[in-house]
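A reminder before we start the practical. When you read a complex entry, don't treat the lines as separate problems. The point of joint prediction is that each chain is placed relative to the others, so the output describes one connected object in space. Small molecules and nucleic acid strands, if listed, are placed in the same frame. In the example below there are two entries. Take a minute to note the order of the lines before looking further.
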Amino acid sequence: MHPSDDPHRAATLRIAVFAGMTEHVGSRVVELPWSGGTVADARRLVAERHPAAAPLLARSAFAVGSRYVADDDPLAAGDDVAIIPPVSGG
Amino acid sequence: MASLAHEARDTLGHVACTRAPIDTAAVLAAVRHVAAGGNVLFVGTARATSDGVATHALHYDAHEPLALATLDALRREAIARFDLVACAIVHRLGSVPPGEASVAVATSAPHRAAAFAAAEWLMAAIKKDVPIWKAEERPDGRREWLHPESAPRPGGGA
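Here is the predicted structure of the whole assembly.
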């Protein structure tokens, strides 16, 4: 059996992070074991793993690909998820 | 010219993100058109100090696909809202030394008032809606990321 077909192997949700969030989580990507859930679930799990990120996370939006998603939107392993903290370009 | 992953363009101009110095003359040239009577080029540059504190450089990070989609949506909205002839926006990413351009916005319109107004509207929108972030790099190499108190607008731009 191919490893990816193993139902006991937890799927992973990869979340890209940027700017100040990278310093709070120590990386440009957060990986969560994922058997399904919403943006709000991912938000809670990231805050539990990285308490230092919680205040900025609370002020951040989530995106999948090049569109923003709401807290009650579902996320699937393999989605191109990103945390978008308050912006400061220009 | 083939469309690159870090830019979007049509006959009314283009948007791009670049890690190389911005060719501001090329951004202005991109909106030149015989229908235009007013052409505005705004260039935002990195300051050597921020609130009196020395800044070695500014450093920009971005969610590039979402930044490009949002910049392109803003460009199209500006063209419609101000009846522009053309519009081009280029934002620099990575390290930007003092004096160098971090962003360039060019607009052209039949008359100057619309070109000026559109450039100002675009800069305000870019600072509010585009997923690009600025850090001030101190001389000791430390980066201080800037995240304004107001959260981004979910669903905004793109």
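Discuss with your neighbour: The interface with chain B takes residues 16, 18-20, 22-23, 56, 59-63, 65-70, 82, 84-90 of chain A (CB under 8 Å). What might explain this?
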